[in-house]
Every structure is written in structure tokens, then in C-alpha cells.
Design goal:
The complex is a heterodimer. By secondary structure, chain A is an alpha+beta fold. Chain A has 4 helices and 3 strands, in the order H-H-E-E-E-H-H. The longest helix of chain A has 29 residues. Classes of the chains: A alpha+beta, B alpha/beta.
């Protein structure tokens, strides 16, 4: 898992899920802010079928934050307006660059990634069950 | 990386007000400061935090302060002097003044503002008169001759903000600089 993957994962995770997942790491130290949590909106762009020309899909509320911890800068941008979520995600990013990276990866990131994979899988299965295939019958012309 | 203002809304409003006052009263000295990265004085840091944004290219000497500025303000850092809206550094890095945009007769506002780190703001200097100065005032200037030539370009020309530690003084282009008479 690379840095952009875990920053994305932390941003998509539900605030309560991240809070629960962080419990094995102990108490979060009081943060040393580079940038306090700020809420704004970001434009999400999409491509038709994944390859077409980009278009603006819509705006998503996001909160960003940056903290300094033991010589490392942790950055986060998370979905929603939850400042605690942004701080916690930035803290995890800073930890992932330091000595405790393996610990954090095993106890926090991997369970969260697994949960996300299952969530997507379930959703894909439910969608698949309602799929309708259209076929054009051959019109008996010849 | 260094942080910026701890209480952003209040401190940036206070700093902006201070800059407005300094510009409105050329030659007067005001206190202003922000947490500064290596290479910036607290006054320069505060000035740029308040004024720079993604639409204002900033010229500055290389150094760790570049990353700080980009992170906190989103301002693009440029190496082309003619593109700069703001420029900062010691006086020796900012000369000659002809390098900077001075605006056009139709749009004199399209000019650069130089934020100059000077060794001192107190002491003797040329006499200044003009808008915002009731009778007269003095301010030590890095190169009074060049700055008088800049003022003569009015309404074109560059504006200066002089910084020293946690203090600033402004020298807009409208201020007339009286050079000492040659004996």
C-alpha cells in the first residue's frame, strides 16, 4: 500500500470506523497543527465509461488538515465535515512515515482496507443480482 | 515545515488591517508578525500570508521558505521577474527595479509589490512627502536615488513594503522622495 492509497483509504472511511480502528494505537497526542481542519468542497470529475472526456460530476464536502509529529508532516483530506476525522487521518499519515509504520499498517490500515473491499464486494453483488441483459432477437428476415 | 497563523481568521484580519494602515501612512512603522520559516522575517511571513494567493505569482530567492509559501498560500512561485505580482528578498536580490512589472498607463495596478528585507527601519533617511503624510517624515531607504526614479514614473511604478524583524513600513509609488541637495 503506497502513501496515496492510505491517504485515499483514510479519506473514504467513516469517522466512527476510523476511531474504532485507531483504538489499538492508544490515545492520540494533542496535535501540533501545520494547518487546522478546514472544510470546503472539491469538484469530483468523471469520465463516461472510464475513458470518455472528463465532466464535472458534482461537489463533495471535504475537510483537510495537516499536522506535525516527530519530524514528519501528516496530511489528510477526508469526506464530510468531521474535524476529528481529519485530524486522526493526518495523525495516521504522520505515523506511517515514522517508526511505528508496520504497527499502524497491520492494526489500522489493513483492517480498514479489508472492510472497504467487503463493502464494495457486497454492493457489486447486490447490483449484479438486479442486472438485466438486453438482447436483440434476430428478425426472421432471411 | 513551519505552521502559519495559529488563529487564522483573527490574526490574518489584524495583519491585513496593519498593512492597510502602513500603506495609507507611508513611512510609519507598524508591528506585524507570523510564524516564519527559515529565510523569512516574521514580518515578511505575515505580509505574504495575508496578501499572496493562487492568483499572485511570487518571486523569491531559492530556499525552504518556498515550500512553506506554496503550502500555506497556494501562490505560484515564479523565477521570471516580469511575471511577479509580489517579490521578496534583501534589496541586493531585487535590483534593478526595471526588472519588475510597473503596470501600463491604462492599468497601473498590474505592477509588482516588492517586500524588501532591510537591516533597519529606524535612523536617518531622505525626507518623504505626499498622500498620507501630513507634513513630512523620514525613512531609511536602501537606494533613495532608484526609488525616487520609481516615484517619478507615477501612476506607474512598483510599491515597496520594507520589513525588518517584526516591523514594517510602506513606501507606495505615490510618495515623493526628497533627495538631499548636492553641495
Amino acid at each position: 500500500m503506497e502513501r496515496k492509497d492510505w491517504i485515499g483509504l483514510l479519506g473514504r472511511t467513516e469517522p466512527t470506523a476510523l476511531y474504532t480502528a485507531c483504538q489499538p494505537l492508544g490515545e492520540m497526542p494533542s496535535p501540533d497543527f501545520l494547518r487546522r481542519p478546514e472544510t470546503g468542497s472539491v469538484m469530483v470529475r468523471g469520465r463516461t465509461g472510464g475513458t470518455g472526456t472528463p465532466f464535472n460530476l458534482g461537489e463533495v464536502t471535504a475537510t483537510r488538515c495537516a499536522v506535525h509529529l516527530d519530524g514528519h508532516d501528516g496530511h489528510a483530506i477526508v469526506q464530510g465535515r468531521d474535524a476529528d476525522h481529519a485530524i486522526r487521518a493526518a495523525w495516521i499519515d504522520a505515523l506511517m512515515q515514522g517508526q511505528r509504520a508496520e504497527d499502524v499498517r497491520r492494526h489500522v490500515l489493513e483492517p480498514l482496507a479489508e472492510a472497504e473491499r467487503q463493502r464494495r464486494d457486497t454492493r457489486a453483488r447486490k447490483a449484479e443480482a438486479t442486472r438485466v441483459d438486453f438482447e436483440t432477437m434476430v428478425r426472421g428476415e432471411d | 515545515m513551519q505552521p502559519a497563523f495559529a488563529d487564522h481568521p483573527t490574526q490574518s484580519a489584524v495583519a491585513f488591517r496593519t498593512l492597510m494602515q502602513a500603506m495609507a501612512r507611508p513611512g510609519t512603522i507598524h508591528d506585524i508578525s507570523a510564524p516564519a520559516p527559515a529565510g523569512f522575517s516574521p514580518a515578511t511571513a505575515a505580509t505574504l500570508l495575508v496578501l499572496a494567493d493562487p492568483t499572485t505569482p511570487v518571486w523569491m530567492p531559492p530556499g525552504p521558505a518556498r515550500d512553506w509559501l506554496i503550502f500555506h498560500t497556494g501562490a505560484p512561485v515564479t523565477d521570471t521577474r516580469a511575471d511577479a505580482t509580489f517579490a521578496t528578498g534583501p534589496w541586493s536580490t531585487l535590483t534593478p527595479l526595471a526588472d519588475w512589472p510597473i503596470g501600463t498607463p491604462d492599468y497601473p495596478d498590474r505592477s509588482a509589490t516588492l517586500i524588501v528585507e532591510v537591516p533597519t527601519l529606524a535612523g536617518p533617511g531622505p525626507r518623504l512627502t505626499g498622500p498620507g503624510i501630513e507634513s513630512k517624515t523620514t525613512l531609511p531607504l536602501p537606494d533613495a536615488q532608484a526609488l525616487a526614479a520609481n516615484a517619478a514614473l507615477y501612476p506607474q511604478g512598483v510599491d515597496l513594503i520594507l520589513t525588518c524583524g517584526t516591523q514594517i513600513a510602506a513606501l507606495p509609488r505615490s510618495t515623493r522622495i526628497h533627495l538631499p541637495e548636492k553641495p
